[in-house]
Amino acid sequence: MSISSVNQTVATLAVIGWALGASAQPEATVSSGPAKGEGLIETAVPTSWEKPSWLTDLYSGIQETYDDNIYLSGVNVPASNTVPGSAIAQKDHSSFKTTVSLKIGVDLAPLVGDENILKSLSLAYAPDFVFYHDAPVENHRIHRFTTKIKGGTDSFSFDLENALNFIDGSNVGPTYPGGLNAYAATTPREHRLQVNGNTTFSFEYDHDNWFVSPVASLLYYDMMTQLHDVTGYLNYASRYDVNGGADFGYRVEPQLAITLGYRYGHQYQEQFSFSPYSSSSDYQRALFGIEGKPWKWLEVDIRVGPDFRSYPQDTATHITPVTNKHPVYYYGEANLTATITSRDKLTFKYKQWMWVSQLGNIPYFDSTYELSYHRKWNDWLTFDLVGAILSSNYTSGNLPSSRRDDYEYSIAAGFVYSFNAHFSANLAYSFYAGRNELAGVVNPWTRAFDENVISIGTQLEF
Q1: CATH placement of domain 3-461
Q2: Closest listed residue to residue 448, CA positions, set 161, 75, 169, 147
Q3: Where are the domains of the chain?
Q4: Is 19 exposed, middle or buried (0-12, 13-18, 19+ CB in 10 A)?
Q5: In angstroms, rounded to a whole number, what is the distance separating the alpha carbons of residues 120 and 163?
Q6: Which residue has better confidence, 24 or 404?
Q7: What distance in Å separates the CA atoms of residue 74 and residue 123, rounded to the nearest whole number?
Q8: Which residues pair with 147 in a beta bridge?
Q9: Which residue has the higher pLDDT, 20 or 313?
Q10: How confident is the model at residue 350 (pLDDT cuts 50, 70, 90)?
Q11: CA 302 to CA 287: how far, in whole Å?
């Protein structure tokens, strides 16, 4: 690590130390942090100021992170043909990272409408400014805009949530001269120039024990990185998934319902000018679900069912690289939360579905399993432990590169200590292991990586 990087790290920790001292003064208040894993800090303000009721979020902060393998690469191979400005993803490229975060959120519902109908009109802006001390090409700024609108009457209700992210980063993708695991491409992708987002909408009508809920959702990535037909260079494809349908439900208990649902959707994957391959498709899903509380201590939301897929036939200018143009896949997602005690909570999240690749060509079966434990030791200290298994199975394709089933195993632990109602600090550690789990693959070690990440941060919240 360079001398300048050491100086930046020392300066960052000095600021954190100053904040710890400032938090003990009677004239200091604080505000809380952004997305998961990010810690925050801000300057002191008089405690006499009271936050208005419509101002729901106000904080700023800082976090220092050390990552011993920022490109999640498993090999060191010199790049013989590179794109100007492209980061060369070598094994064990480590770096400290400083993240400065802000957030402001408002709820305008009390100001613009009848609270009996419009329950919430929340808007938030949360930028992150990220600096890699030993990999400046990865520096980026994330501008997050979120909207949540909820309302309704006794029989009708509606819910709209929209998350829009503009990432101002390099417009040149990285180069992996030695091969890569599927998950190695994801982290640097999130540092590149793009717009992405996720929108969901639902409307529900209730009648006695029955209800019907029209729904729609959109997940999209508009990638703005350069495209080059160069071996090892990562060309990130723009893509989206949009669907709509309805759920019909019956409440078998006041807090427990079974549902039958239908979705019609389309997945789009950009086709590169130098390749005939892409895997856009239409699909229909039939879903059986359970939602609510079968017991007071357990909350569930489960949906499973068949996914009927239709890929376009091949033409002179386009090929869908799959063995079956009309397959039937399994779709499933679940969220289960068990409140073990007033201080202990266990959560399991699960999803399996067919999705298009971020690097183009072959679609893949995407599986996620996550188990997390949250412990509130007392009013000041909380502990979180999270384990996850991710799988990307490309074997539905008919190209030589379809011979892959990549996994990522991870475990993370973190503590948060609250010094007072506004100011807190956090310490976290994460370990990630990427592996190939498909037998008979040539050079499977090129798809293996290990990564250790440790972070310390503070957050101040009004």
Answers
A1: 2.40.160
A2: 75
A3: 3-461
A4: buried
A5: 16
A6: 404
A7: 42
A8: 123, 162
A9: 313
A10: very high
A11: 10
Check residue 80 and give its pLDDT.
76
Task: State the SS3 of 345-384.
Answer: EEEEEEEEEEEECCCCCCEEEEEEEEEEEEEECCCCEEEE
Measured between alpha carbons, how far is 438 from 241 in angstroms, rounded to an integer? 28
Q: What are 106's two structure tokens?
A: 């408002």
The span from the CA of 280 to the CA of 261, in Å, is 23
Question: In this structure, how many other beta carbons lie within 10 angstroms of the beta carbon of residue 115?
Answer: 10
Nearest alpha carbon to residue 404 among 386, 392, 390, 387: 392
| pLDDT, tens digit (0-9, with 9 covering 90-100), for 187-206 | 999 999 999 999 999 999 99
pLDDT value, residue 41? 34
Looking at residue 86, what is its pLDDT? 95
Q: Answer yes or no: are the C-beta atoms of 83 and 232 closer than 8 Å.
A: no
Residues 326/297, Cβ–Cβ less than 8 Å: no
Is it the case that residue 16 has pLDDT exceeding 80? Answer: no
Question: For residue 392, what are its two tokens?
Answer: 């990307």
Amino acid symbol at 439: A
Note whether 449 and 182 are within 8 A (CB).
no
Distance CA 276, CA 278 (A): 7
User: 431 - beta bridge partners?
Assistant: 411, 452
**Residues 43-74: pLDDT tens digits?**
344 445 678 888 999 999 999 999 999 999 99
Q: Which two tokens stand for residue 1?
A: 């690590």
Among the ranges given (27-41, 59-73, 166-180, 441-455), the one the predictor scored with the smallest mean pLDDT? 27-41
pTM higher than 0.85, yes or no?
A: yes
